[in-house]
Amino acid sequence: MSKLSIRAVSKVFGAGTTAVDSVSLDVADGELVCLLGPSGSGKSTLLRLVGGFEQPTSGTIAIDGQDVTRLPPEQRPTGMVFQSHALWSHMNVFNNLAFGLKLRKRPAAEIRDRVEGVLELVGLKGYDRRMTNELSGGQQQRVALARSLILEPKILLLDEPFASLDQHLRERLREEVRDIQLRLKITTLFVTHGQDEALSMADRIVVMQNGRTEQADRPEIIYRDPQTPFVAGFIGTMNFVDGRVENGRFVHPDLSVDMPVSDGPVTLAVRPEALDLVSTQDGAAVVHRVTDFGTHGLVDLHLSDGTRLKSLVRSPEPFRSGHAVDLRPRAFAAFRDNVKLYRSSDAA
User: Fold this and answer.
1) Are residues 171 and 91 in the same domain?
2) Where is the ABC transporter domain (predicted)?
3) Sign of the four-CA dihedral 47, 50, 53, 54
């Protein structure tokens, strides 16, 4: 069993710059949790605090009930995979992987067997004598992963490991890493700013902003039921329309829907796939651009007040630039003062 427990952890740099602000998080045995957020949200700092590369200003970090808050990285049961690979270019693959085991004075036969085993695990069997500068970016990242796994850590830490790779390689590697993580059942904390990586890999996603947790939940919940406007706008594409609720109805010059909340200003949030369009001569919205992706179409619209919206349609054929359309939200949510007020029964 390998469990990670983060309790009220904060990190303040220099003259009062708060990078992590009282974050608490439990990661269960074998779970892959993704820290997701924009640059400066505190996700990488939190990961470095777990790995021991930074010391928290306050709070505690425990692994399997043992307090590791003040332990240096080499004394923690964690393995870190960096974005930059951090491989030793003067060593071949074997020596890169064997280095940590040699420091632990493991027998030569055991080192050889474990190097061979972990190379096969990451799909690099027979690469042990290659120099690291002879490898492609994807192969180097596999070696970096193997170097962390060979020490059999309780917690695997991944800091945007695919950020420097091209899209196709990134997609393939993240599938391979997820398969390895599931096979080993290793508890993993993964940092990324890519929504697709988080949605496709994580058991749970922790969305961070300004050093704080905005929402932590399963990927499908984060997408379909965001609790704040930030999460709604950061995960996937979301249309926002500012208006008012009057007598149980959302009112905007170009859009109106029933909304059983108290009167006052609100922001309507609707996903492109939940925004239906109906062509009409006196429609409230105007088509700006239509993109045909083959399997579906994406219609860019603008309202009379300049608000820009997107609608995902099955076929782009009925829509042309300059055409007027009516808006028919099938599902939506409403926010006021950074708090979700309402979610329709099928809201994104």
Assistant:
1) yes
2) 4-235
3) positive
In a domain, 348, yes or no: no
- Residue 167 has which token pair? 């899209």
Question: Is residue 143 located within the same domain as residue 289?
Answer: no
Q: Specify whether 204 is located in the same domain as 254.
A: no
| C-alpha distances in Å from residue 219, one per residue of 48, 182, 198, 202, 298 | 24, 17, 8, 7, 24
Instruction: Please give the structure tokens belonging to residue 36.
Output: 């997701």
Residue 231 lies in a domain: no
Per-residue pLDDT of the chain (348 residues; tens, 9 = 90+): 699 999 999 999 988 899 999 999 999 999 999 999 999 999 999 999 999 999 999 999 999 999 999 999 989 999 988 877 678 888 899 989 998 888 888 889 998 999 999 888 888 898 889 998 888 888 888 888 888 888 889 999 999 887 777 777 788 888 888 888 998 899 999 999 888 889 999 999 999 999 999 999 999 999 999 999 999 999 989 999 999 999 999 999 999 999 999 999 999 999 999 999 998 888 889 999 999 998 999 999 999 999 999 999 998 888 999 999 999 999 999 999 989 999 986 544
Range of the domain at 17: 4-226
In a domain, residue 232? The reply is no
Based on the domain organization, do 175 and 300 belong to the same domain?
Answer: no
